[in-house]
Amino acid sequence: MFRVALSLALLPLLVYGAPSKSKLPACDDNYRPCKCPSGTTFKNLTSFGIIGAPAKDVRDVMANFFDLDWQQGLKPSSTSGKPAVPGARRNFNFTGPSGGAYQITEVLTQYSSSPDGSFVQGYEQAEKPAVVKVPGGGEYHGEWALVVAQQSMIANETVVAYKNWRCEVGETFGKLLRHPNAWKWQANMRADAASSHERGIANVSSILHNSGKDSGVDISPFTIFYEVRND
């Protein structure tokens, strides 16, 4: 029942009616019906959760574009720019399932914050290279995300929606992908983008709980796939 209510509450921000595929514009950082490059798969998904803490505390943990400790300890190999100013970049070095290395860069496209602590952070896969191939895995042909944290009417509860739309071949976020000193592979763990975002939201709750700032009700994260389509 809660999941239905939460989804309906955020419906205006998250769901759209898609026209025919042939008339769709190419996907970009605008959240709208869009078309991926030919031969790739379009995925539109959102991970939801409620964190039992004020939005200001959630923002302190979650909103720094360069600090991803809440995202399973993921650490950029390098950064540039300022973490709250669009154009900032974070670079990652990963190891693919076959053992080969690959790099991917994400760029901050938007950031805004309200006095109550609510915030919106948008980022995307860097335009160059246009395709990032994961050794032994899939291929990134474009990825975009919006992290939306909204202070609820209850002072110590924050609604989080991690919106993601992506163009890819295969599964780019496989369970064997890991960052040295950050990612630990667990054979029994789901390892797609959805589960990673769910664990990230849950980790924010744990961080705030351990610091004595999580005094409200936590709702375990879950993900809704709005569309999966072969283009």
Strand percentage:
25-35%
N-to-C series of helices and strands: HHEHEEEEEEEHE
Give the class from helix and strand content and strand pairing.
alpha+beta
Number of E strands = 9
Oligomer: single chain
Gyration radius (Cα, Å) is 17 Å
- Helix content class: 10-25%
For the sheet with most strands, the description reads: 9 strands, antiparallel
Count of helical stretches: 4
Show unreliable segments.
1-5, 11-15, 176-190
| Overall average pLDDT | 86
Task: Tell the overall outline.
Answer: globular
How far apart lie the N and C ends?
A: 34 Å
Describe the structure.
This protein has 231 residues and is of the alpha+beta class. Helix content is 16%, strand content 35%. The chain has helices at 2-9, 11-14, 55-62, 193-210, and strands at 41-51, 78-80, 89-95, 101-113, 119-125, 132-133, 139-151, 158-169, 219-230. Strands 1, 2, 3, 4, 5, 6, 7, 8 and 9 form a nine-stranded antiparallel β-sheet that branches. Helix 3 packs across helix 4 (193-210). 33% of the residues are buried.
Ordered list of secondary-structure elements with their pairings:
Layout: H1 2-9, H2 11-14, E1 41-51, H3 55-62, E2 78-80, E3 89-95, E4 101-113, E5 119-125, E6 132-133, E7 139-151, E8 158-169, H4 193-210, E9 219-230
Antiparallel strand pairs: 1-8, 1-9, 2-3, 3-4, 4-5, 5-7, 6-7, 7-8
What keywords describe this structure?
231 residues, alpha+beta
Brief characterization of the structure:
With 231 residues, the chain is α+β, with helices and mostly antiparallel strands. Helix content is 16%, strand content 35%.
